[in-house]
Amino acid sequence: MARTTDGSGTPVPQRLLAAATRLFAEQGYDRTSVQEIVEAAGVTKGALYHYFGSKEDLLQEVYARVLRLQQERLDAFAGADAPVEERLRDAAADVVVTTIENLDDASIFFRSMHHLSPEKNKQVRAERRRYHERFRALIEEGQESGVFSSATPADLVVDYHFGSVHHLSTWYRPDGPLTPQQVADHLADLLLRALRP
Question: What is the pTM for the complete model shown?
Answer without folding.
Answer: 0.86
